[in-house]
Amino acid sequence: MRQFEALTRKKDNQPVRYLIVDDSVFARKSLAKMVEAFGGTVAGEAGDGLTAITEYSRTNPDIVLMDITMPQMEGIEAVERIVREHPDARIVMVSSVGYQDNILAALQRGARHFVQKPVKPEVLYEVIKYVMRDDATVAKSAGAGV
Amino acid sequence: MRMDLIQPFINSTDAVLAQALESSISIENLTMEADAYQRKGIAAEVCMTGEIEGRIIFDLDLRAALQLASRLASVEVSETDEELVREAVCELANQIIGNAVTTLNDQGFHFHVRPPKLHTSDHGSKSSEDTEALVMCFNTSSGNVFMNVALRYLRQQAAEPAAVAG
Fold this sequence. Notes:
The complex is a heterodimer.
Chain A: E1 5-9, E2 17-21, H1 25-37, E3 41-46, H2 49-59, E4 63-66, H3 75-85, E5 91-95, H4 100-108, E6 113-116, H5 121-132, E7 136-142
Parallel strand pairs in A: 2-3, 2-4, 4-5, 5-6
Antiparallel strand pairs in A: 1-7
Helix pairs in contact in A: 2-3
Chain B: H1 3-21, E1 26-33, E2 42-50, E3 52-60, H2 62-73, H3 82-106, E4 111-113, E5 117-119, E6 133-140, E7 143-153, H4 161-164
Antiparallel strand pairs in B: 1-6, 2-3, 2-4, 2-5, 3-7, 6-7
Helix pairs in contact in B: 1-3, 2-3
């Protein structure tokens, strides 16, 4: 994987903190490697929507990467419940199922963006930069490549 | 079997395999099978209900499955890591199906997909007359990936796609 310029939080220059939500261990591992390559840290992981809600409150991440199809509670419902409690939550949907109805439903419930699997690191990086906007800065030193 | 239903799965398999295995892909041995399915390696099955009904099985020979798991996990995975290898095959099936479903849904086909599950028995059920299976072999530099598709479009219960496409 290519190296990326590290994204840090503007307010304290600390790494961007991520909550990764996916029922696939492989998907979580893969996303964790990507966010580390972006200079970020994994604040928490969850394998379903219900756990994601509690993990969000516990970790208060800067970004959530949220799968859609999961057991217990699907990603779109989890988005709705997290945003209801935390209106400023930045949630990016990451799913292999990317048809228009699904994307629209997620955006209407408060998701900020959508990335289709298999995830291309350069696409996710640009989406995170876009979603963080003025709350993140790009450091001159590169993040750890994986 | 309608090829316009099958084509998105072929395109998606080609694209996802090429990215996951970083390999060029060629398609070989396209056959129609009415006999019971015979598992070849590590296999995952995805079932669909709704306007499109049936199942798709992705069956990877051991070398391809190990290579896939190693790439997804970014560590060398061996035959003894059975659980990791099986989960890798299910994740591959999930990504392929998800991309194909996206295309079909945007074309106006509406159906429900169940999460992938491991296909552990050596033999599957025999295809019925109207769900004869299409079997394709995707040849990669890491080994062979077989896709076994048995789908039917339920005309009686569904509007024509053009009528429901938004």
